[in-house]
Design goal:
Elements (H helix, E strand, L loop, with lengths): L4 E5 L4 H11 L8 E6 L14 E5 L5 H8 L4 E4 L8 H22 L3 E5 L15 H14 L5 E7 L2 E2 L6 H10 L2 E5 L4 E2 L2 E2 H13 L7 E4 L5 E2 H12 L4 E5 L1 H11 L10 H6 L23 H10 L4 H9 L1
Parallel strand pairs: 1-2, 1-4, 2-3, 4-5, 5-6, 6-11, 7-10, 8-13
Antiparallel strand pairs: 9-12
Pfam families: Epimerase
InterPro entries: ComplexI_NDUFA9_subunit (IPR051207), Epimerase_deHydtase (IPR001509), NAD(P)-bd_dom_sf (IPR036291)
GO molecular function: protein-containing complex binding
Length: 321
């Protein structure tokens, strides 16, 4: 099909920026307008170099605004998500907003929706999940599946890494400052996926109508514990520290203390609850390979990025280890 307009909700974020760049370079989408609404369009300043991107100041949580944004669109991608917040905030972002998106899509005559959820969501009762994050993500999926007439594809990624991530790079920066890494959820299992592979999967889903009705697991080739990922990030950045695994009670105290600091917390009790569920592919759903994507390993991408910032002293220290 010929694409005239793609609406990306959450397009100023980490995944959205990669998706917009990849879609703008896609030959099948030549001439397609990419509309990226945000309450703070300045966050998407990196998108300004893409000539087909239109950054619009808008509140996507408003139903009338959503419907107006969807006029003339051929497809919608929903990337809006939060990692921290109250039960009401998770409900608003992960359940109420998808419900409004589905309603606006159908009213505006835009049935095609690609929605990004998360690995670890329960297949059955959303309330069976241990965290507010996972419960709300599962409930959001159910809301979208119940919308009759919606041509829906759901992607479930593991933790996403890349040059601008707040995961691998965050732990690398922390180890440059701290003599030891006291770590909650050290044994939690992840299957990290490169942001460019997720963006490629989104493009393939938009172009291939055979993916309508599918739930696709987006995961990299390696399963790692959180402690392993922290050690690797320290090694690649030249500041590897000893990892001190914290018991659950100590981790929750640490999370509570971090929550008192200004800005978005590094860790919350709800994050600890989410990590009780392995963030890895189940193998019961199609994966990136089903889309013709061979996922990149975390080391192949992040080691060169972090090593590029090493000083000579860092390299000598790393070589001695």
């Amino acid at each position: 099909m010929a694409f005239r307009k793609l609406l990306i909700l959450g397009g100023t974020g980490f995944v959205g920026r990669s998706l917009a760049a990849r879609w703008a370079a896609e030959p099948a989408a030549a001439g397609c307008a990419i509309v990226v609404p945000s309450r703070r369009p300045s966050r998407g300043v990196a998108l300004a170099t893409l000539p087909t991107v239109q950054r619009i100041a808008a509140d996507v949580h408003d139903p009338a605004t959503l419907e107006r944004l969807m006029q003339g669109a051929d497809a919608v991608v929903n990337l809006v998500a939060i990692l921290h917040g109250s039960a009401a905030q998770f409900e608003a972002a992960h359940v109420v907003l998808p419900q409004r998106i589905a309603a606006a899509c159908l009213r505006a005559g835009v049935p095609r929706l690609v929605h990004v959820s998360a690995l670890g969501v329960p297949e059955g009762d959303p309330q069976s999940a241990p965290s507010r994050y996972l419960r709300s993500k599962a409930a959001g999926e159910q809301v979208l599946r119940s919308a009759a007439g919606l041509e829906l594809t759901i992607l479930r990624p593991s933790v996403i890494f890349g040059a601008d991530d707040r995961f691998i790079r965050l732990f690398a920066r922390l180890q440059a400052l701290a003599p030891v890494m006291a770590l909650a959820g050290a044994g939690a299992r992840f299957q990290p996926v490169w942001v460019e592979d997720v963006a490629a999967a989104l493009v393939r889903c938009l172009l291939d109508r055979a993916t309508v009705g599918q739930v696709i697991e987006c995961a990299g080739p390696e399963v790692c514990t959180l402690a392993q990922l922290v050690r690797l990030s320290g090694r690649w950045s030249g500041h590897e520290r000893a990892v001190l695994p914290l018991p659950d009670w100590a981790g929750r105290l640490q999370a509570a203390a971090l929550g008192l600091l200004p800005g978005e917390p590094l860790m919350s009790g709800d994050n600890i609850d989410s990590m009780k569920v392995p963030n890895v592919a189940t193998g019961r759903r199609p994966g990136l390979e089903s889309l013709g994507i061979r996922p990149a390993g975390v080391g192949a991408v992040m080691a060169p990025i972090l090593q590029a910032g090493l000083t000579d002293a860092d390299r000598r220290r790393s070589a001695r280890r």
